[in-house]
Every structure is written in C-alpha cells, then in structure tokens.
Amino acid sequence: ANDQDHEKETLLETDRTHMWHHMSPYNPNPMIVTESQGSWITDIDGNRYFDGMSGLWCVNIGYGRQELADAAYEQMKALAYFPLTQSHVPAIHLSKKISEWLAGEYRVFFSNSGSEANEVAFKMARQYHAQRGEPGRYKFISRYRAYHGNTMGALAATGQAVRKQSYEPLAPGFKHVPPPYCYRCPYGKTYGSCNMECANAIDEMINWEGAETVAAVIMEPTITGGGVIVPPPEYLPKVREICDKHGVLLILDEVICGAGRSGRPFGHQNFGVQPDIVTMAKGITSGYLPLSATAARAEIADVFLEPGPNQHFRHLNTFGGNPAACALALRNLELIESEGLIERAEQLGHDLRSKLATLENHPNVGDIRSFGFICGIELVEDRTSKAPSAPDRVLKVISECKKRGLLIGRNGDTIPGFNNILTLAPPFSTTEEDLEFLVNVLRDVFEQL
Ligand code: PMP
C-alpha cells in the first residue's frame, strides 16, 4: 500500500504540475482511474465505484467490451487514417446505420465532439437558408438551462451562467427562451392549465425578432445537464409546428439523449417529431473513441448540391469520421441493437425510477424526474418554498455517495445555488443488483442528511 501511495502522490504531483483540468479549483485531488468493467470503475488505490454517470453520460454499452477494442484495432491495421475529403468503408456503413436509427432519409456529417457537431449544425442551418435565397436568417433560439457545448457558438447557445464567465463577447445572434420546467414553471403556472406558455415563447421570440432573421431552434429532447428537465408530451410537437409555420429549422441535440439512452434509438422518437438536423456524440461510440455526427434531412443536405451563392459546405475537418472511431461506433450501435440494450435502457429506467420512489418523501427531495435511463433528483431545503439546497448539502451527498462506492452527478444551472439536481445515467450494462446497490447507498446517505 505504501508503494502505491507513493506512486499516487507522485502522479498527482505530476498532474498538478503538467495538466490543466476542467474546473480544476473544485477538484485539486482528482481520482486516478485505472480500470473498468461493466458499470464499475477502479481507481489507483483499488477502490471500486459504480459509475452512476457513465463517465460523462457516455459509456452507454458499458465498460470493457472487447468487441469494441477489436473493431478499432482491426480498422487501424487496415486503414488508420484518411480524411473524409475522400471516403472510406467504416464511415459509409456507419452513416447508413445512423440513418436507419433515425428512421428517415438523413445525410450524416462526421466531426469530433458534441460541441463541434452543434457548430456544424449552426453552419448548415445558416448556409441552407442562404442557399435558398434567405441569407438574413442567422439567429438561433435555444433555452435557459440548456448546455450545448464549450466552443464559442455552442457556448452562446448554452443557457447556463457558465456563458457569462469572462468568455464574453459571445457569438452574436443567440436568443434564449424559458424551458418547460414544470416543477418551477417560469410563468408561475401549473401543467394542465398553462396553455404551454413555454412553447408559445418560441413563437413570440420568432415574431419579435422577425422570422426572416431566424435560422433555427436548437434544443435537447429533454434537458439533461441543465437538471433533467423533461418536457410534457405535447411540447416538442408544438415546437415543431411553430418552426414549420415560420420556415425555421429544428435542430435536436441528441448528444446525451441519443444512442439508446432514452429507451428509443433517439430521444425525439419518444415525442413523435421529426427534426431537420440531429446532432450526436458521446454514446455513439460509448465514449471509447471521440466521434460526433450531424445528420441533416436529405432535403436540407441536398440544397447544398444545387447551384447557388453558397454551394460548398465548408467545415474542413482533419479527424472527423476517423476510420477507427467509425468502425468502433458501428460495432457499438450493432451490439446495442443485437443485445436489445435500447429496450434494456428503458426497462432499467423504469426500475430505477420505481426504486427511487422510496426517497420521495424525504424533506430534501423536491422532485424526481426521469427520461429513459436518465434520472434527476432535485434537492430543496424546503418542499413548500422549493428553495434549492445549498451547494454544501449537494456536495455532501455526492461525497458521501463516493465514500460508499457510488459516483453520481450534480447538474442544474451553474449559478451558485442552482446546481441542485443530482443526476444518474448509468451504463446499460447495469444489473438489477447494481440498481439495488445504487438506491441503497442513496437511501443511506439521505437518511443521514
Ligand atoms: N450537447 C450536450 C447536450 C451535451 O451534454 C454536451 C456535453 N456534455 C455537448 C453538447 C458537448 O459535447 P462535447 O463535450 O463532446 O463537446
């Protein structure tokens, strides 16, 4: 144990000297993760943790799948790299598989991260309108609480306080409307007698800005990182209708909700809408390699083939659609399909939600929300006032869970005091026994609150 402590200390010292982490001031002593299997990871001290967040909503299929390593290895030996300025077999097959999952005719553009997939969507949307003779349509509408990525456009679309953290001026042209957050209705209404003011806000925003200036609306089917905000069933269809009325494109960010996580291939399929553009990343490779994609309806992509002022879609991309990443993603999606893991995700989501019902009456539990195999537990100081739990209490729950071998997430807004939603999105490899463990740890920690 002493050797290991020494090694760990040395590694952490090297880490502090040579690396620069996301949010580093919050975590001066990061865990050094060394191994993984199924839904569990192991740190350098040999401690095992149930990964209640699939890394960062990523490892859908679960850790340690030899088939995925083999797919990448075999592809690297045959063709490790070639840019998609030409074509290659794994990208061709993967684009077809993604189109099948989307159940419509889509053309797929590959890139490297969720943020980049969204940037590609923004560029496509603007250029699509320009190509059709409406170059004035440059604005995007998204929602408060949404997270769409870390690059300048995606950050501007993001509706969390992080965007104001010394990164201004942000890319212009991004407008925000309130989310369908029924637990804290931004209009002070109650679902059922609200007339869906939150959806109408999009219509109003488009009218106010002038439809001739609006390119697209971007949203996740369910806000995930903003605190698991699940819309009422008629919200997305209504948004689709509003977009159609104004000739505005609907971009759905499926970076988290896609790849089977929602209990359907893509999250929007739970709501019966067809998006114009779909972005995806994370779960399409289950996190084993970086890859993202932006799928556009054929009618949209094909506008770029017609003669016009703006014929070529320019997003020259060195790594996008990397052959090994594509081969791995294809294998990942095939396995998710052949092993029935999408249905499994739905079942696990139901099971988790019903087990969590035992926590519902705890005085600090304001609301429990779920979408597929994603769950959010909103912590409050008082169930009547709904005052969000103080950061200390939220952090305490997370660290007590960690002590007991359970990793969970914390989400919401990045405004201090509103990051009060515990999040769960475990791998689909999770067993009933794992779920028991997860809920028992949570119950134990809540009893001590
Ligand atoms: N969109 C959503 C909904 C996300 O959750 C994320 C990442 N958390 C992104 C986009 C950005 O993805 P990436 O970190 O791969 O750039």
Keyword list:
Aspartate Aminotransferase, domain 1; binds 4'-deoxy-4'-aminopyridoxal-5'-phosphate; Aspartate Aminotransferase, domain 2; 4-stranded mixed beta sheet; 36% helix; 449 residues; 2 domains; 15 strands; alpha/beta
Helical proportion, percent range = 25-40%
N to C succession of SSEs: HEEEHHHEHEHEHEHEEEHHHEEHEEEH
Integer-rounded radius of gyration = 22 Å
Distance between the termini: 33 Å
The quaternary organization reads as single chain
**Mean pLDDT score, rounded?**
95
- How many domains? The number is 2
By secondary-structure content and strand pairing, the structural class works out as alpha/beta
Number of helices: 13
CATH superfamily of the largest domain: Type I PLP-dependent aspartate aminotransferase-like (Major domain)
Estimate what percentage of residues fall within beta strands: 15-25%
CATH class of the largest domain: Alpha Beta
Instruction: Specify the biggest β-sheet.
Output: 7 strands, mixed
- Ligands, ions, cofactors: 4'-deoxy-4'-aminopyridoxal-5'-phosphate
CATH architecture of the largest domain: 3-Layer(aba) Sandwich
Number of strands: 15
Coarse morphology: globular
